[in-house]
Specification:
heterodimer; A: about 300 residues; mainly alpha; 12 helices; B: mainly alpha; three-stranded antiparallel beta sheet; two-stranded antiparallel sheet
Amino acid sequence: MALSQVAVHLLVLLLLPPLLAGVIQRTKSVFAGRRGPSLWQGYRDLAKLAQKEVALGAGTTWVFWLAPAVGLVTTLMAGLVVPLGPFDAPVSFAGDFVLFAYLLALGRFFAATAALDTGSPFEGMGAAREVSFAWLTEPALFFAFLVLARISGSLQLEDMLRAPEGALWRDSTAALVLTAAGVLIVLLAECSRVPVDDPATHLELTMIHEVMVLDHSGPLLGLVEYGAAMKLLVLEVLLLHLVVPAADIRGWLGLGLFLAGMLAIGVLIGGIESTMARLRLARVPALLVAAVLSCGFALLLLGR
Amino acid sequence: MTGLEGPAAATGGLLLLFAAALLLAASGLPALLLGWRSARGEGWATLLAVAGSAVGVAGGIALLAAPGPSSLRLPWLLPGGVAFGGDALSGFFALPVFVVGGLGAVYGSAYWDLRRHPRHGRRLRFCYGAGLASLVLLLLARDGLTFLVCWEAMALGTYFLVVTEEEKPAVREAGWIYLLYSHAALLCLFALFALQARIGGSFAFGPVPASAPGGLRGALFLLALVGFGIKAGAMPLHSWLPGAHASAPSHVSALMSGVVLKMGIYGLVRVVGLVEAPPVWWGATLLSLGALSSFFGVVFAIGQHDLKKLLAYHSIENIGIILLGLGLAVTGRATGRVDWVVLGMAGCLLHVWNHALFKSLLFLGAGSVLHATGTRELDRLGGLARRMPATATLFLLGSVAISGLPPLNGFVSELSIYLGLTRAALGPGAVWVALAAPVLAATGALAVACFVKVYGIVFLGTGRSAAAEAADESPRRMLVPMALLGGACAAIGIAPGLFAPAVDRAIAAWGGGVAGGARWGAFVPLAWMPVAAGALLLLVGLLAAALVPTVRRARARQPDLPTWDCGFVGSSPRLQYTASSFAELVTSRFGWALAPEVREPRIEGIFPAPSSFHSEAGDSVLDRLLRPAVRRVEALAARLRLSQQGSLQQYILYIVIALAVLLLLSLRPGWIPGGPGGR
């Protein structure tokens, strides 16, 4: 594969995330009748956080400050096994989808551990929620992978995501739509969006992701925010490839289509956040079970 | 009949393993003779155990490297003689015995110092060595009777290890339940080998041909499943396991969990391997049992707040993962899919090694915590990472490994199983096998939750008791074995390619012609593992190096900054999230299975009195199924006492009746089915 392709892949992966977060924010502002911050506010926030000093709780260990780095690196590496629109995945091998899921799990492990490192009851609460919901999102994700593997006949994430196009997409539309619905729920849960979590809430008792990072500040907080935005991008890529059967359009047109698709999903998430209330915590598992069933039923449709 | 046969490397390996067994069996003797005040007994025990382990490791490697199996037949001791043999499968299972056993002996010399435990120190040393020796002989046994003798020696040896602290009632009860389960397993194995001898014509391990009656083969499989499943701790046959593992001294727990459980897996692998062309339902049964054990093992684990019991339930989870691999391999054998055989068996075997490594690391870590604080109760611990940094780091390594996360060893074996299961989804045929993959994914996510809880509650935050605040780092003799185990976890995780030849040999020894010389590396991207691990470690290292100056500045500028307390003053360590509250979101979903015993006070009035909340998740299978059933049987049996009135005449009458019945039977009238007259 051409080195320039890899370079562009990395550039998109590194530069796009804050814009996505900005698009969601702008969509919510429009829905609320406000003008809202600029689309580029995410980049400014990151630049500002990078220059700030860090405040570290006295009781914390190295896990606390290393976790944001692990979170960012695992997400970045997960982003290397997915294709970004016209760009092939720089790394692709049989079973890379397992690595994808488990890298994200490694990031989650360290994020939750860092939260417990502070000894704060709030952060413990957030950590417990973060790791407890994953036991339903992971099977949904793996059902989705099984669906894609069955459609594509491949065990490489790149081929699995590129397969649903043309005749294949028409033949298995129902299964793909169900899978896409499941993956959308997984995305909302994993990225702590409404209706699972509300990133804009200000009450510690009700938060999940935000409460876990209460003690992180300065560059550490920057790494957390950046990693979270990148995770959103990586999971959006999964969803985009499921719903848009146009992976074979290459070149600038392909890139434009990809960017438009990503931003459209951002608008969709913003729309969901603006029009829905978050679920009561006890109801969240029901939503996640729906995701598992949706992806599982898709597999059933293909298994005939 | 007599003699040592086989290639030079294999016979050499066999003899080395015998020498190792001898050294290990002898390791406890000097201490028994020397008296408890003598430090020399301690030294001899450790020295002999380590020497035996080193010899054994060499023997195991020789067996793995040998081109074929070796055998040794001795015409004495048992009717029909005694048959031993060594092949790659024996060598594969023997290596963890020596690694965990030897390192455990070193750890134990500091953990269970003879002079601080005059009462049971010497017995512990002796049983530890004898138990290890019986494990080695069990792996070498090649006929049913020898196997049973070694099996029973192992069961008794480990029983005495479990009841080391016999003065505690809880320990005695755990030991009693373990003994009962062990003998239930033994009964199944008696029947199993009798059946095998009937099919094969002798007790020697020989192939069970596809032409044997299906019913007999099915019975053989079910007996093996129950007998070996009890030993392996597969759910729902696991109830002995949490108590026994929690009660034993920690280096014994490491041995029990890391190695002794695997003897159940070994037996199952060995016996199923003898059967030619197993039916598909065997694979399906193993897969279902594996899915059940792995998922509910971790669900039960997350509900525990006793550190060692929690780890014990995780053993059930890992046994489940191993069974998933075995089930996949057996299904592959039944349907002629070489890729499933290789991927499943590689996952099964490698997870046997991996679990031995990370679980003994974690049990030794738990032992260090117990040693330093005197408690296994999670909610009385906390903040130990600052008091015991080396132990904490090694425990974190073990936690990441057992959660199956990259770049450590758990990930590699799980990847192999995932790959096999997903290949099933591609079709054709047996697509249902793929359904185990999402179960494994859910298990993995719960394992992450569970070990975040363990590490966070035990090592992070602030100490929840005075003992936790006063803990001290363990001595080097306890840290070095843990570091070596951690190093092995990292080595297998980063460079699994180095260990692939051993896996290939063991698969070939198991599957014979079925694997068709296919190599594990052909199906798993082993070459990518060092790349992925290297990139991960390098990038995290670079970011960490960039952060270190900022962190140093922050610590120097504000050395005693509290955590965000939402404006609440008077923060105390008791405000921290506890183990039970952390697990509540999961355990509340599984109340029907866990049946936690909760004592919740009623809070009344405007100024309620101080009160306490308590919840405890016992073992549902034992408490809700077995104990009531045993009580019912006891009640029924009590009615039989009517026939026991203590009158001699009555007993003579019983004897006469029995004799009459036997006489009748021996006459074999035609109406008794099965008798020659009935045919």
